[in-house]
Predict the 3D structure of the following.
Amino acid sequence: MKSHTAELIVLPSAPLHARIKNTLRARILDGSHPPLSQLPSESELGATFGASRITVRQALGDLQKEGLIYTLQGKGSFVSRPKAFQNVSSLMGFAESMSAMGYEVINQLLDLRFGPAAAQVAQRLGLAAGATVTEIRRVRLLNREPVSLEITYVPEALGRKLAQADLVTRDIFLIIENEGGLPLGHADLKIDAILADAELAAALGLVEGAPLMRIERLTHDAQGRPIDFEYLYFRADTFQYRLRVDRHRPQEH
C-alpha cells in the first residue's frame, strides 16, 4: 500500500498553471504574501516557474476566481483581504454578531424619516396601504471601513422609540427588544446579487457597477408578527454570510 507521502510525489506531473496556482495559494495562506501585498509581476513569475505569460495568467485567473487575489489595471495582482463573515444560523444583529468576534462596529446614520409606506413595505409589515412607517438608513462600518448599507422600515410607533435611541453604536434588534419591549422570534431572508447604482456606490465607497450582496429580511416578534423589514446591501469584496445546512433523510417506513 502506498504511503500518503509517496502519493504527493506525483503532484509535479500536474499542469504547470496548476502548480503555479497551488504554490502561490500556499504562500498566501501561510502569510508569505500577506493581505493587500502585491504579487510578483507576470514576467517575474514566468521566470521563476519557467512558464509562459499565458500560463501565468491562467494561474492568476484561477486564484482570482477563488477570491484570493484581485487585479488592478496597469498595476498588477494583489492579495485579497480576508472577508469578515456573519453566521446566519441564529437571529442576531450585525454589531451583536461582529463585536463577539472582536470587530469594532460603528454606524453612520444617514437618514431617519416618517412617511407613507410603499406598497411592498406595507404588505410585508402587514399594514394598511399608505400607513405611516419609519425609514432608517445607516452605513455599517467594520473597523472604520464601510461594509454595508442598511435600509430599515418599522411601524410608526416603534420608529418613534428608535428615533430616541442610540442608532450610532447599537443594533436595532437590541433596541427593539430592550426599549421596545418586543422579544424577537424569527426572520425570513432572501439573498441575491446586484450591481451598485450611483447611490449605493457613494454610500459604500465603491465604483458604480461594483458587485453587492443584497439581503431582504423580514423579522417577526416572538408572537409571529412582522415588525422590521430591511434591505441590507453588503460589499461583496469585504463580507460574506455563512450558514450550516444539515441533511435530514426521510424516515423509512
In short: Residues 1-11 have pLDDT under 50 and may be disordered. Residues 4-79 form a domain with the Arc Repressor Mutant, subunit A fold (CATH 1.10.10.10). The longest strand covers residues 105-116. The chain has nine helices and ten strands.
